[in-house]
Amino acid sequence: MNRTAREFQYGLFLIPAFLFYVLFCVYPFATMFYYSLTDYSIAKQTGLHFVGFRNFSEIAHYDLLLAGIKNSLIYAVLMTVFQTALGILLAVALDKKLKTRNVLRSVFFLPAVFSPLVIGFLWNYLLSTSDAGLINRALTSIGLDKVNFLGDSDLALYAVVFTQLWQWTGWAMVIFLANLQSISKDYYEAAAIDGATSSQQFWRITLPLLQPSVSVVSVTAMIGGLKVFDIVMSLTGGGPGNATQTIMTAYIKTSFDEGFYSFGAAYGVVFFGAVLVLTMLLMQLLKKWGGSNR
Amino acid sequence: MTSLSRKGRTRKGNWPLEAAMIVLAVLFFIPIYYLIVTTFKSPEQATLHPLSFPSSFGFAHYRDAWHAMDYPKVLGNTAIVAVSSVVGIILFSSMAAYSLARREHAVNRVIFFFFLAGMMVPFQMGLVSLFKLINSLGIMDTLLAVICVNIGGGVVLAIFLFKSFIETSVPLELEEAAFIDGASVQRTFWLIAFPLLTPVTATVAILSTLNVWNDFLNPLLFLQSRDNSLILLEVYRNIGQFSVDWTSLFPMLLLGVAPLMIFYLVMQKYIIKGVAAGALKG
User: Fold this and answer.
1) CATH of the domain at A148
2) Is A23 part of the contact surface with chain B (CB cutoff 8 Å)?
3) CA geometry: angle at A163 spanning A264 and A213, to 5°?
4) What is the pLDDT of residues B192-240, one digit of tens each?
5) Residues B31 and B107 in one domain
6) Which of A113, A202, A252 is the best substitution to test chain B (most B C-beta atoms within 10 A)?
7) Complex ipTM above 0.90?
């Protein structure tokens, strides 16, 4: 067989993945940049006009969208920090020689296989002030007052974060554990001989060598956090008021419930910018940290 | 001597940690335990003794939930979507990754970067256009729509994982021998390279299954009729209808997560391994 024919065959191998990716991801994404500059809406689907950046400036006057951005940022940052920190703590504890550690690991990972939608409905009951509200019943049984976690606009977003930490910390733990197991025990033996305490060993050996997994977990948590949707739909529906609206819930509401396509598209462009900027910042931070370890 | 005594001390010293972790794990598990036991209780029982073991195992609530959700049908639909999507992701991304790994010229490097960039881009923002596209392709309200979108989004991470595995763990020698014997790229890939990809194929299969099975947003937008419903859509649609008799909702939630719960109980070791490998190898 000649060379050109072979190169051609290699090229053919790319086509199915490329086609699906371009058609169902890249193309819809790219057209949103165009729509964001037009007056496209459910009432005006043909003969679109260019309106410049009007859609973008209007975002600033729309509480739902502003709340979505603010809440998603808070949510993503909290998830990134706590999922990483708690995941490391769990992993370090369960990397020790405990008799039950395999069972413990499976228990902590278990919530991660469930759909956030169902987890949201479940926690909606657990956190409620009704008879089903297990958390509030525990609080009243030790003499404290009931707390309306999901109905209080100052608390609701943190309640969402709490349920998602419960769900995803085990996922992070599994990744940190795999990283921990690749660290040679020689480092610890050498450090112990030099008289390093276990907390010194953690800060000087464990943490710096966890850098690969910290990068993966924190970047994934950040991007996933900015895209959060399912859990909000089932746990709070975005309320009370707009207290737990996120970028995705606000986007879906604006575009699909209200039919302001171009407006939603402009919001999507802002969303893309936010993901890009935050991820870049986080990567710079991780790079700096990685550099200072060397 | 010293090492012996140190060992003895650490073993003793681990007991407080072990006890603390067990307590934490029990607390952690309570929501899931509560979900399971409440499915067998009446609202009165659940209110009086929320955490007690159920006194009787009536399946009446399960039967109602089963019928309300049309469970066999939606389970079947969800399985069709999951299996087709995962098979599509595995076939298409392993082929693409093979081509990208074995032909590292400038064009392919650009194409690889083009795929890789997808990990950071929130493609959800294109949903309005995607909705229009699905409509004009004539596949609105079909399982095929969800499958196509799943494959489009799923190949990104999969190509990355397959490519790094092929580069580090699949030897070129066998393929070269096959080429000398006149085998085509296709033959060489399917007969020689693909069987060697089993570990990474398992990782991709596990990660994609979890993603696809738990996806809610795409089915919500692209599937409208009850005939083409999926498990999570039925949970979402039925949730308002049982508000008085609130415990009868719990079987529905449990049926919603049951398939993956069983998947986890059976495949636990592989799932945990797959999650770790998917994150760190590459």
Assistant:
1) 1.10.3720.10
2) yes
3) 85
4) 899 999 999 999 999 999 999 999 999 999 999 988 999 999 888 888 6
5) no
6) A113
7) no
